Amino acid sequence: MGMFHRHSRGGKRLQRKPKSEHHPGVRLAALLLCLSMLTGFLPALARAADNGEKLSSIVTFDSITLHYAGADGQSVGAAVQDNTLLKKDDKLILRYTYTITEAQCNSIQAGTKYYLDVSPHLVLPHLEGGSPLTVETEDGKQEQFGAIYADGKSAWVTFAAKSDGSGTILSEYGELNNAYFYLNCNRANDIPAGETPIDGNSNLYAMKFENNTQLKFGYAENEPVSAKAQINKGGSLRDKTITWTINYTPWQNPTEGDGVTLDTPFELRDTIDTSLHSYVNNSVTIGGQSVTAYTSRDDIPTDAETYVLVETPADGSDTTLTFGGIKFNAGQATQGNPATSLTITYQTSINDDLLLPGGTGSKSVKNAADLFAGEDGVFNSLNISSSKTVAIPQPTWLTKEGHTTRHTDGTGSTTDWTVTFQPNGFDFATENNLTLHDQLPNGSTLVAGSVKVDGAAVTATAGTNNDFTISPITTTTNSQPVTITYQSHVPEDMYDSGTSLGSNVAWFTFHYGDQDYTTPNAKKDVGSGDGSGTPGTATLVKENSGYDTAARTIVWTVKINPHLLNGSVISFFRDEGGPSIYKDRDICPYRPLCPQCRNATAMPRLGL
Fold this sequence. Notes:
mainly beta; 39 strands; disordered N terminus; 608 residues
């Protein structure tokens, strides 16, 4: 602990205002306190006696600066800037510039413990015997006016009384401006319990004086970080291929109890269940670079930065991938420069029976990566692993769309059909005999010359039940869909009779491996006949625009399909639905045919 003496301002000596002749010519020069007198600066970090009076009610601090301490305990260099990272073991000095008024001096009571607010992030010394607080008189003599104490948990100051008991020795001195004291201290090695450090640059240890009102802390700079290795496994499916990822973070600064060292070789192992999927050769990358694959451990160079060992038993059972190399070993890392993860990728191909129609779809594939550590050529599991489950849904093989155009010339309607086949990662050549089957509803006919496959005209083979087939269909790639388009026609008399136009059904068959497969079908309604009651195609459609309160009328509209009248018009004009009446019988549009309109003078409103 040390002290500086400063009683000047602007290069001039600060003269006190004498209060008595007891200490003639004495000037207050400096206070020597200890540790973090953060009065008024650390409301969230204070640790002072709950029932004690605080010095913050007396002393006003103008600024706080932090310095490194040299071997002699004195400050070295300029103040540490805000948010600067602190070195772990270096000694520190906190320098406090303060102002104390004459009134504040007079308010201090002799013998009272005035507790200090102390940051829990700073190491508090043990000063049970007290350290003297002194002032320097004009003639250069030191006079003690109090003492500072600390017990490892809190710190406090007491002030000595004058010999006549009329107040404190400090009350003999006038106001003090631009005075300061400093103290030697250390920051805590660990974050105190219950404390939340600030978020600094990469969450490193930083000390920040915010607006000279609050002292904040973060984590320690360049301190070794001890952390076990981490694995994070991922995977995603596209068509028949799963791309697996392993994000591996090496061990950081192994400790004595970890059982591994910086020289310990590490490997990751990944076992592929060949009953579900198989390894895609030469698909491994480590750190974005392709990796040499080995089938024997004896062939792996001892200084290889990365490698993959691919082992498949002769009986074709599960394949094991072993990833290793110097880059997998533990390293020396700090808070400011933590270990970076190493990304491994490889691919597997889903077995056909998980995807082919009627097979074992809607399943999943689970894969796990485990970490092993080597010793004397033997690798043992460290029980550090990560797994990923990839869902394998039954794929969609085909979709079907249809758009119907009703002709205004009385020739019926035409529907433009589009059937899309998804190969889902499979290749279909001529020998696979990929065939489209399409069942048209009764009354519909295929428009001759309308069938196209990927825009090229083809010939359809007619069946015996108003159906047709297109075969063989081949794919250009195992991921590019095939589009089949064609047209069907519905005659006008089906609309006239009100017959339902039915649905169009399509499906595919093909041969793959040693088996024949049939896809689920896709069904699409052609439409409805006029007799179904569907608005726009029904025999009668009755509408109104609401009640007109001013005219006290409701205007009704009846839309009649002329194809269905067939001379029986009167049978459609019966309405027993309400008491509304026509204001004028002449407005009935069907009066010549309506028996009620012929003789009635006031007739019920016809619900047309």
